[in-house]
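Aim 2 progress update. The chain analyzed this quarter is reproduced below.
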Amino acid sequence: MKIGKVSQNVLKRSMLKPLQFHREDTLFSASAEEMCFGVTCGEDEQVLCANTVVYGNEKDMGVFAMAQVMNDLATRGAKMVGMSVHIMLPPYAYESRLKAMMECISRIGNKHEIEVLHAKAEVSPAVSQAVMYLTGVGILKKGNLIRSSTGEAEQDIVLLKWIGLEGTFRVMREKEELLKKRFTNSFLREICHMESQLFSAKELEIAKGYGVSAMHQITGGGIFGALWEMAEASNVGLWVDLKQMSIRQETVEICEFCHLNPYQLTSAGSVLIVAERGEELVQRYQELGICATLLGRTTKDAARVILNGDEKRFLDKPAPDELLKIYC
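Predicted structure tokens:
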């Protein structure tokens, strides 16, 4: 099989099809598109969880893992309150590296009032780079759940923040010495300032007042993958304008230098929002100094169209994330 996330067909055929048992207190069954899982607790409260796997050589890789799960929970209407962290290290790693990784997680957790509820680490000969498994635990009131599969046709599609955001940051972390030979220190420092933009829970809270039917964070496979997954989950088509996809100049230059496609690059912190009043939402974000653009509309037919000036193309199934090229 190809490196990266298995395709939706493989996931449905070999992982989801064998599953038969379903409890009444679970919020929803496992699906190819859903990033979270959860159960109902009591009469009016629900517990939702999201997990991710991040690997690499960065000591601050926990930033990206926490951003992914916190934003995934926020897109579902939940507030993250705790997390479980499991780290696998290669045999050549030192204890100082493990300590630095946990200090980073603690720093971000303290900032967002999220407690580490469970922490484990092991050294394994099966891995050549550090691997972090992080599960976030969130809570929400019954009736407030939003899913990728609840998107409605004939609504606006809003892009919150920039494509390739997380990927740019991670490429810099992995290839910093190489990039220093090509770019100035001030250019690279500007990328470091992006860290706070990886966390979007507060911005997503604003969106709820504008008739939101679905939200989907842009992670593996980039914005092209996220558009496909959201449309597939909600069984809608879409028309979007490529030129409305916000991208920072730092991302453009890093991707050109490393031969990466920014439209297929992971971007935790950037979110697709399907809303009834998307134009008003974009205006509100811009008034608050938050980057947001109106990409296009969902449609009743099955066509998933990307416009680029006079050129029209159809969206393909998600490809492996471009970040994987950095590790191969």
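The mean pLDDT is 90. The chain has two domains: 22-141, 148-327. These observations will guide the mutagenesis experiments scheduled for the next reporting period.
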